[in-house]
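2024-03-11 09:14:02 INFO worker-7 job=invfold-0412 stage=load source=structure_tokens
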């Protein structure tokens, strides 16, 4: 049977200290327990390791050989533990995040900034992409936590939790006929209007597709919220975008929000691999996000 590490430590200490009593004291165990452990080790290995006499305990020739090998084993184990500790420290000092564009551009920088004020040595990498790709990165283990805008339950293989609230708004350029409209636009009217849209796979597009399953083809399909916003400002067509992305444009008059008889509120969610507990910096980042969200009006 394989000897346990504590018995090997006891044997090494007996050889170094020349006394079973002193070796037991060094390990913090009673001498009778240490003597029993040493006898068990000898039985397992099938050799006598220690001569016990009135003047102390002396290693036998076999004991000298076994003790040297035991010392190498213990050194290897200590190296393993230290290496694992170093790997854990490296993981705890690094946080890999993926976020959909709305979250990455308007929320994640504030979350990360607050986290780093309490963890100044933390290195954070943020990958910006659409919600569908965020989910794939999390499932593949390429990032520690992701943030998505996609509506509905998380895709298979992912756990999720709400991190922040958001609302989509129908926006137009100031010269658009809808810019002076006071009566809310009906869903059929909006569905019949070609819009500037994000690509499929983005959370904003998925939310709109669910709200308007019979919508006509888009007037223009673009790969970023910034590009969609720019097209609306240029007067290409209306668009439905997060209020986080157009708040400054609305305040400064570059865009106008059009009332619409449609509930476009949504929850921005954190995602991580299913069946795994979120720990370390990833859990701390989610805590920051939910705390800041709860303080917003």
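2024-03-11 09:14:09 INFO worker-7 stage=emit residues=297
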């Amino acid at each position: 049977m394989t000897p346990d590490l504590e018995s090997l430590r006891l044997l090494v200490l007996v050889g170094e200290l020349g006394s079973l009593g002193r070796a037991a004291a060094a390990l913090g165990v009673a001498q009778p327990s240490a003597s029993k452990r040493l006898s068990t080790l000898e039985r397992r290995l099938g050799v006598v390791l220690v001569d016990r006499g009135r003047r102390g305990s002396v290693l036998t020739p076999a004991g000298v050989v076994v003790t040297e090998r035991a010392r190498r084993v213990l050194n290897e184990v200590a190296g393993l533990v230290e290496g694992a500790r170093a790997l854990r420290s490296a993981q705890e000092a690094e946080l890999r995040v993926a976020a959909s564009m709305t979250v990455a551009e308007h929320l994640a920088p504030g979350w990360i900034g607050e986290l780093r004020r309490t963890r100044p040595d933390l290195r954070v990498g943020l990958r910006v992409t659409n919600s569908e790709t965020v989910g794939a990165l999390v499932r593949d283990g390429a990032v520690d936590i992701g943030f998505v805008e996609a509506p509905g339950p998380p895709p298979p293989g992912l756990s999720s939790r709400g991190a922040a609230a958001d609302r989509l708004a129908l926006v137009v350029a100031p010269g658009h006929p809808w810019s002076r409209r006071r009566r809310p636009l009906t869903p059929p009217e909006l569905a019949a209007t070609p819009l500037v849209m994000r690509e499929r796979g983005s959370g904003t597009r998925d939310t709109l597709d669910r709200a308007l399953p019979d919508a006509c083809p888009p007037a223009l399909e673009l790969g970023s919220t910034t590009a969609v916003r720019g097209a609306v400002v240029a007067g290409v067509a209306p668009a439905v975008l997060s209020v986080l992305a157009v708040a400054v444009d609305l305040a400064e008059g570059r865009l106008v929000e059009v009332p619409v008889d449609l509930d476009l509120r949504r929850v921005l969610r954190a995602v991580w691999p299913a069946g795994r507990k979120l720990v370390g910096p990833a859990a701390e980042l989610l805590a920051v996000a939910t705390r800041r969200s709860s303080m917003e009006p």
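2024-03-11 09:14:09 INFO worker-7 stage=report msg="The CA atoms of residues 115 and 284 lie 7 Å apart."
2024-03-11 09:14:10 INFO worker-7 job finished
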